[in-house]
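Memo to structure team: turn this sequence into structure tokens by end of day. - J.P.
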Amino acid sequence: MERKALNRLGYMELAAFFVFGTFLLGLYYDIVWLQWVTAILFILPMAGVLRYPSRCKERQEPFVKARFAWSLITMFLYLGMGFGLLTIL
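Reply from structure team:
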């Protein structure tokens, strides 16, 4: 059961990485609509990671604090890098 919960977190991180990579492409090629779409789509993986603790309680799966903390740190790093790049460019 723990493995399923960790896999869900991994998928959310992978989705966030893909969205962030697409956001960087939009910045590099100066495609404003792509920047907006990816900024809005970034909400979905963030919501998935933030729902992880409650989802574990609902399904009575073990909660892995270290993995959840790493996912949050990763998400906020992506947000920080995105905002930093926007202010530079």
